[in-house]
Structures are given as structure tokens and as C-alpha cells.
Amino acid sequence: MNAEKLSALQIDRAHKQRPTGTLWIIFIVVIVATLGAVYLARPKAGDDVRRLKPDANTAVGSSKSPATAGPAAGAAPASSATNTGREPTAGNVVLTVSGYIINRERIEISPRFMGVVKWIGVKKGDAVTNGQVVVLLDDTEYQARLMQADGAVANAKVNVAKAELDSERVSQLAKTDIASKEAMDNARLGLEATRAVLKEVEGAHALAQTYVDWCIIRSPINGVVLEKLVDPNELVVPQSFGGGRGPSTALIAVADTKDLQVEIDLNEADLSKISLNQKCRVSPEAYLDKTYEGYVAEIAPEANRAKGTLQIKVQILNPDKFLTPELSAKVEFLR
Predict the structure, then answer these.
(1) pLDDT tens digit string along 143-161?
(2) Which one of 119, 125, 193, 265 counts the least CB within 10 Å of its CB?
(3) Do 51 and 69 contact (CB within 8 A), yes or no?
(4) For the residues 91-111, what does the mean pLDDT come to?
């Protein structure tokens, strides 16, 4: 009886074998995790390079590789305070800032008197030469005044000729005592009076001719038309009397494209690095591969208190077509 109970409780040998599939899966997961940890813990190239914060004597934006970490013997450290964030191109750059290319002189041609535009022969971008006729004003009134002055001059010349003849006759008569001395003096004074009148009308004629000449507007320089400010049949005056709806006060604006500067608002903290006639390098932002020589031509005598800046103008030597006024440029001030 007991033997049968023990036989019932005994486990069959075929059921004692443990499943091995799950155990292999566990082993594989452990191996993959171990390999991943080893890969992540492996040191990478460049991990041993320490990056130091640049000090005050290091140029802004400069970086050194291990091979070039040490400066050359005897070389002075180049400092650069930039508004553009770009690295200086050479060790002798003491300051790099940005500014705007401008024409050194912008000339707005205005009339000398109130008039009406009769003809304008240029447009924006046209090249002009010194003395070239660019605008004609209506000169009808002044031509009439000139004709009137011509008549007055002719009449005065006739009177002078008559007075000269009278004076000569009286002088001849005075020699024979036919004419009195008083008559001779009157003739002489009459001649001087007519000559004075002639001079007066000749001055009026010159004034009328001047107004006629002023109706012809010429370019004062060799340059380019920056802006055309009027059109034919518009009224123009030499000055504005206030308001935005009045007549134009200028005809065209011209400038010499071969006389360019860079205008810079320099921070007051950088003024000690700038001096008059200091050499510079100019690079237009549109063509950074092009550089131009220049020098500090002007330092403003008064600062802008609100901005804390001082205006500097750098003259560009030998500008070309790649320098466009009012575009920005980078200026490097050399040591």
C-alpha cells in the first residue's frame, strides 16, 4: 500500500529536464548589454584635449589646435574687439568693426531761383561729367528781360555817341569864342552822364544774361546721378518754407563713385586703438574675398552721448565697382 503511494508521488524522469530556450535568451541579452557598455566607456579621440576659456589677451573668436598652441617667439599677442564676430586676418589687426560705405560728398543740385523744370536729361544711375547740362529751367521771362536790356544798352550807346558829338562841337566853338565856357562844361557833363547811364544798363543786361545762364543747370563734378528729384513741368525753389507738400528744393543728387569712405560708429571703449591717418583694410560684406587699403581720414570732434559712440570715417584707396554706397563693410584697423 505504501509502495503504491510512493510510486504515485514519484516524478517521471522525462519530466525532470529543464527547458533551455529561455536560458539562452537571457545569456544573449546579458552579452549584448555588456558589449554596449564597453563601447560607450571606450575613450574617444580628442577627449584628452582640454578647452580653456580665452583670457583678455586672446583675440575674440580665435582657437588653437595642439600643434599651434604656442605663439611664435617674440610675437606680441594681437587683441581684437569686433562688432562682426569674425576673426582678424593678421596678427597686426588691433580692431575689427563694421560700418557703411558712403560717398565722401553727396551734392544735391538746387536752382538759384524759383522756376519751372523745362527739361531733365538724366536719370538715376547715369554717369555725368563736370559741366554737362543735366536740367533746363523755363527761361521765357528771363529771355524777355534780356531783350529789354539789349534795347536799353543800344539806346544808351546812341545817347553816348550823340553826347560825344555835341561835346566836340562845343569844344570847337569855344576855341573861336562863339560858345561860352558854360556851354562847353554842360556838354562835357552831359557826355559823362550818358556814359554813366550806359554803364548802368550794361549792368542790367549782365544781370538778365546771368538769369538766363542760371536756367541751364550743369553737373559740378564727374560722378553718377544718385537720385532724380524732379520731373519736367515741376516747380522748384532754392529753399523750403516748411511743410511736406511744398515745391522741390533740389533737382538731382550726384556723387563721385571714386571717392568713397566707410562711416563707423565706434564704441568709446575702443577709441584708444584708433588714431588719425591709421592704416586700415576694408572688405565689403557682399565680397569678403576682396580687400582695399584705406586710412582713418576723419575723427568726429563730438561723441554721441545716447549711443556712447564716436563717428569715424575711413577713406578707401582705389575703390572699384564692387564697392556700393550704403552697403556694409568690415574694417580692420592695423597696428
Answers:
(1) 999 999 999 999 999 999 9
(2) 125
(3) no
(4) 92
Which CATH class name applies to 106-138+216-255?
A: mainly beta
C-beta of residue 319 within 8 angstroms of C-beta of residue 290:
no
- The one-letter code for the residue type at 202 is E
Beta strands in 41-105 (DSSP E): 81-82, 93-103
Domain ranges of the chain: 94-105+256-334, 106-138+216-255, 139-214
> Taking each helix axis from N to C terminus, what angle separates 140-175 and 181-214, rounded to the nearest 10 degrees?
160
What's the CATH fold of domain 94-105+256-334?
A: Elongation Factor Tu (Ef-tu); domain 3 (2.40.30)
**Residue 155 has which C-alpha cell?**
539806346
Sign of CA dihedral 51, 55, 60, 63: negative
What pTM, to 2 d.p., does this model score?
Answer: 0.60
In angstroms, rounded to a whole number, what is the distance separating the alpha carbons of residues 104 and 108?
A: 13
Quickly name the fold that domain 139-214 has: Helix Hairpins (1.10.287)
Q: Specify the pLDDT at position 10.
A: 59
